[in-house]
Amino acid sequence: MEKVSVGIVGASGYGGVQLVRLLSDHPAVELTYLGGDSSAGQPYTDIYPHLADQIKLTVEPVDLEVIGDRCQVVFLSLPNGLACTMAPVLLEKGCRVLDLSADYRFENLAIYTDWYKVERQDQTVAAEAVYGLPELFRDRLRSARLVGCPGCYPTASLLAIAPLLKQGLAQPETLIIDAKSGTSGGGRVAKTAMLLAEASNSLAAYGVTRHRHTPEIEQICSHLARHEVTVQFTPHLIPMVRGILSTVYATLRDPGLVRDDLLTIYSAFYRSSPWITLLPPGVYPQTKWAWGTNRCFLGIEVDPRTGRVIVMSAIDNLMKGQASQAVQCLNLMLGLEESLGLPAVTFYP
Fold first, then answer.
1. Which of 55, 93, 143, 187 counts the highest number of beta carbons within 10 A?
2. Helix, coil or strand: residue 71
3. Alpha helices in 104-258 (DSSP H)
4. Residues 7 and 73: beta-carbon distance below 8 Å
5. How far apart are the first and last CA of the chain?
6. pTM beyond cutoff 0.85
């Protein structure tokens, strides 16, 4: 089988290096371009020496002509507001594009502009983007040219929520999401809040009522429920490097439902989803179980006193929340088995 040529723009960030690691071992692709203006001219292994025997490429300036000539598929791992200036050009050159920023996650660009403060001129291109959550949009991804890969918090939260809304099990207006992320979610940049002296031995909420992932979660929840849904979402920074634990609360429509009923429903909903691990009764997910993998662990509990369901979801924010999920989408776009080239088991402990 002839390998597909793949490029990564923004290869020097945390998401970028996960992509490099995964794609360098992927049997169906060949890495032909690594781009990033701030590190252009550097051998990639000068930035990440742990890949010294794996990667021989040098980081190049971002040149869309070069990328279009050299790559059949391009991953854009960039800050918000940049991919929307590049993707239209790359698509015109015949590339397929997977964007890891927020630029192509929204059906309504007015919502994107409101939350991200970036004016857009690519409405036609944005209209064809497919939201890159394979467990919900697998069929659409198979024919996609442009994928808006989900955020890390939305991935963890939506996988916990989806069966509740799709099957009409919960009252949408009661949804509350309490999520905690490791510091790598802030990216590979200098930020005071991410310093060891600031983050260690501490736990804090941030972005309360205005975190940018809120409208993304609400958009997909509304799609699942078939009417507009508003959620209460509060993220927290926790002093670990990687991982997200999202705990979702909702009031059940039928207070007679018990945990075993929901486990059966979730098992049926995700029966064709190889990366969802539904835990047995009384076992709740830990982020460490997901480290370095594309797996999402789900645990379910029902509180008969309050009539609420509690669903807990654990992922690696850099993997299922970012890079490995993008590769999962790529596999579907290329007509490959969606688990190809993706690590399934963590190192433990």
1. 55
2. coil
3. 109-116, 123-127, 134-141, 152-166, 196-199, 213-225
4. yes
5. 38
6. yes
Q: Any idea which residue has 């989900």 for tokens? A: 150
Structure tokens at 241: 């490097």
Q: Which residue among 152, 221, 296, 329 is the active-site one?
A: 152
Question: Is 152 a catalytic site residue?
Answer: yes
CATH number corresponding to 4-149+322-333: 3.40.50.720
pLDDT tens column, 51-77 = 998 999 999 999 999 999 999 999 999
Q: What homologous superfamily does CATH list for 153-315? A: Dihydrodipicolinate Reductase; domain 2 (3.30.360.10)
| Token pair of 57 as six digits | 């490429």
Backbone angles phi, psi at 71, to 5 degrees: -120, 140
User: Phi then psi for 341, rounded to 5 degrees?
Assistant: 75, 10
**pLDDT per residue over 232-254, tens digit each?**
999 999 999 999 999 999 999 99
Q: What is the CA radius of gyration of the chain?
A: 20
> Which SS3 state, helix, strand or coil, does residue 137 take?
helix
